Amino acid sequence: MRVIISGGGTGGHIFPAIAIANALKSIDPEIEILFVGAKGKMEMEKVPAAGYKIIGLTVAGLQRKLTAKNLLFPFKLIAGIIQAKRVVKNFKPDVAIGVGGYASGPVLRVASNSRVPCLLQEQNSYPGITNKILAKKAKRICVAYPAMERFFPAGKIVITGNPVRQDIMTKVERSEAVEYFGLDSSKKSILVIGGSLGARSVNDGILSGVKGLPDDVQLLWQTGNFYFEEMKSGAGDVKNVKIQPFIKRMDMAYTVADVVISRAGALSVSELAVAGKPVIFIPSPNVAEDHQTKNAKVMVDDNAALLVKDDDKDILIEKALELLNDSEMMSRLSKHILKHARPDAAKNIAQEVLEVGCRK
Which of the chain's ends, N or C, has fewer CB atoms near its CB within 10 Å? Predict the structure, then answer.
């Protein structure tokens, strides 16, 4: 079987796509997989690092705000469709998977018009515009949240959960994780993750409170590459703080964390459910239809997480310290968020892919 996986732009699209590819390969090592992404986006680095071939298209998203970049959108869309036609014609896929992001639109449109069966994987509780448009021609739509028939044809929906990286589910000893990051095993740890690219407001909120860390608490802080030097300079010589632009070993990071402060992207929510960690979500307000708040509220309404609004970012450290000092609350949050874990999501989606492909 030949499979195209298309999409990307952020880790929330890329890492689930790689997890699906790995699950397909574990079922049948002979499956041929080709990724199609957007030139200049992080998938062009992350996918080859995972051992897969990727082709980049000249595509870009439509900006939600009025901007000059939108004038180029029709031309880039046409160029992307032309390139996608070439890719589909040459690769001859048996099935195409769209995970959301710029490239998935042209690729799955071309694939469906070429009578290639398509499967969508929607990570969020509120779908992006690309998947909503593509849903009409998709054979199967794998989702992570209930009540998605508001957006997609009910007969096509399968609740599989979101694929998470395999290493998240690997057991790591805390002593090993502490040593890996150069932390102190006698101190409680707060992990801060603002998404794979980092988040300005989360970083600013942490920076405003980092000097108030008590001596018995340490901070592991992923800033994103763009903000790393600024945050490192701003934190200065504050003790008990480990700042990294990007954390490659998230299994180690989750293991060492007692409390997590995180954006509420779909991948982060799913990984934290599998990790079973007490978490404070700070949803990004700068996403389509405020879908991160909707993602977080599913957990908050089930007493599985706490929520701090983006405007209240300066109280993040204060809230994390309060949670660290409330062992009963930490235990309750961990217990409830574990109920939302779907560790077999990638395998289940892979089975759906095989079924869709075989019915061609």
Answer: C
Q: Residue 123 and residue 146: Cα distance in Å, rounded?
A: 12
pLDDT digits (tens, 9 = 90+) for 35-69: 999 888 889 999 999 999 999 998 755 555 556 56
How many helices (H) and strands (E) the chain has is answered by: 14, 13
- Name 70's Cβ contacts closer than 8 Å, sequence gap at least 6: 62, 63
Helix (H) or strand (E) segment spanning residue 187: none
Six token digits for residue 247: 């954390």
CA dist., res. 202 & res. 132, Å (int): 29
Comparing CA positions, the residue from 110, 48, 100 lying closest to residue 79 is: 110
Domains of the chain are: 2-164+343-358 (3.40.50.2000), 167-338 (3.40.50.2000)
Which residues on neighbouring strands pair with residue 118, listed in sequence order? 96
